[in-house]
Amino acid sequence: MFKTIKGTKDILPSEIHKWHYIETTLRRLFHRFGYQEIRTPVFEETALFQRGIGETTDIVGKEMYSFRPEESSPSLTLRPEMTASVMRAHLQHNLSNISATTKLFYISELFRKERPQAGRQRQFWQFGSECIGSQTPESDAETIALMMTIFKALGVKHSTLKINSLGDPESRLKYREQLQAYFKPHFDTLDDISKVRFETNPLRILDSKNPDLQTLIHDAPKLIDALDQDSMNYFQHVQSCLKAYSIDFEIDHRLVRGLDYYSHTAFELIGNELGAQNALAGGGRYDGLSKILGSKQLVPAVGFAAGIERLIITMDKLDLFSEIKPNAPTVYVVLQTKEAKTWAFKTVHQFRVKGIAAEIDLQERSMKAQMREANRLGAQYVLIVGQRELESQMYALKHLESSKQETLSLEDIETKLLNAIELCIA
Ligand code: HAM
User: Fold this and answer.
1) What are the tens digits of pLDDT across the range 190-221?
2) Domains delineated in the chain
3) If you compute the radius of gyration of the chain from its CA atoms, what whole number of angstroms results?
């Protein structure tokens, strides 16, 4: 028997209503904030991610699924994130010619060769947004407001928003030197990974969860103290916008994010219901990415992305799906006698064509078993057909929740079922 590969999961019909509910909510909210959907290919040139995300990051260093379809072709990679692909598409199709600000969202599956654990998969889903073309603190705040509105609308209300500023590239370079000077006398006490990061990306040492390093990290110089005045003003402005939206946040001086393209604002949403993998979402400003990807002009941008599996774990723990019903049939047609079969199948087909979700047994089971199945599926009504009904052309329609039964003509039944659907939609 074949099984799913480690770090991947099937999404079964018993779970799919959760995904549909989330996706419908997302599409409604992205639309409300003026975002249009973009879909990009699942694989791209490896160099796009190497350059975009950064050679020294964990994602590029050890987590990408890369392959060469033919010996002579460039290396390709299953996308580990969406931001580089979305910026590539924006530049490739000159979307800035259509509008000065392009607001794009996605709901996409991604691939990272990480060690699988609760909330961490090798194939996982993200939703996210990229606001491309604006270099204003208002667009950073709007992105954060969008993210918070989505989580609130889905019922996840008590997570912690952490923000930081990574400043402009010059401030960050200055900070990098300060950090190296600070960690140098303690180099021998660093763990192996931090020793590597000391050379490649000392800011990432601050991300370490190693308990032995926490005091050293705590006393390290703060990035905020290395920011120049313009970067400070930008960060202050983002904060006042968030206050105007009544969005609570904490400033986390150690928040550096695991992707290299960020400048100025960086943020993460931390969930209370998750274990070690507690980041529900993350994002920030990435003004430098367009030039890294070969654009002559700087195309400023800001965005966020959230993991859907982690969102579902959280919503399950908060019992937020219990009110959401899986797709249930409006009517289940129950056969009392075999003679009613032709009529019943024809009627079910007519119902379906007219827009009524109708179901019928395909196993030739007893009436009792058919009733049990109708209940299991959560059908609103059952329509019972036997010899007597066929002769009189009047049929028994039973509302399962109230057990109320009526005898009606087929025409009246259709009207009733269509009304029931309208009531559900309203
Ligand atoms: P990221 O922090 O790498 O950012 O990922 C965003 C979110 O994706 C995480 O907070 C987490 O919820 C989810 N996630 C990441 N890896 C996994 C995994 N292996 N299994 C399950 N969920 C995972 C980015 O990807 C940036 N592109 C975000 C961004 C958009 N920045 C600007 N625009």
Assistant:
1) 999 899 989 888 998 988 888 999 999 999 99
2) 13-168+228-317 (3.30.930.10), 331-425 (3.40.50.800)
3) 28
